[in-house]
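Progress report, Aim 2. The chain analyzed during this reporting quarter is listed below.
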Amino acid sequence: MDTNLGRTFRRLRKFKNMEIKEVASEDISYAQISKFERGKTDMTLTKFLSSLKAINVSLEEFYHEAYFSNLSKGPLFNYDFCQKLEIEDKEKLHQLLKIETDLLTLHPSIKCHKLNIIQIKSQLHLIDPNIQVNKEDTLYLKEYLLSINKFCAYELYLYSSCLSLLDNKTQEQLIQKIISAEDEYLDFISPKILKIILRLIPIFIENNFLDSLPLLFTYLESHTKSDLFFYEKVTTVYLKALYELKINPENHEASSLLYSYSEVFKLFNSLETEH
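Predicted structure tokens for the chain:
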């Protein structure tokens, strides 16, 4: 148990590769954050929650880091915003864009608002090609992702949402970051993280980003050994066959496997519908 909450906050801030000045705002000063991290003072709940939001960490995640820091930890991830991005409603996405734009105006130093805006615009582009992410925002996204010391789930989701904005060299560098985090999460990998990786692979195949896929398949196979991940195992086999067929369209074995597993997925879908 780590009872020094300031030390925990500092650890999370460092993990996100953020400086104190990027967390400070009108609500809480640089000096207050510095003293809190060194255990010299406490924070009010309002200021504490504001500071957590600045580093894009939920209260639940902070609690886990503070009270279970001696255990093998899962990735830090604020799911609330990312779950909202699962929608494909143009009007709702525009509403969300306005909210994040207003928040960025109020708190220009907080990275998550600018990153959230880039994600929303990237999602809107899929619905309306006239909506574009400018070069400045694309560069900001690239520099942020490359600056992270270790990829966690938020960055993985950010990456998968904005994949089309990044060049091939950046893609390769980011894949290496994802793979390098493997040992950190072996014992506490979240099914939601696997879901995001499984989401990445079809996008890679569609866009011919094929060189890094063997590494991702190795990653998935090492994290889905338990029977609890049966669906993820099946999906991995299916995607691997899709990848092999992409490399060699004459691969009849892969083609046959794809057909067989398509039937398995139909069964899954029918069972879900019944329940």
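The longest helix spans residues 252-274. Residues 22 and 170 are 24 Å apart (CA to CA). These observations will guide the mutagenesis work planned for the next reporting period.
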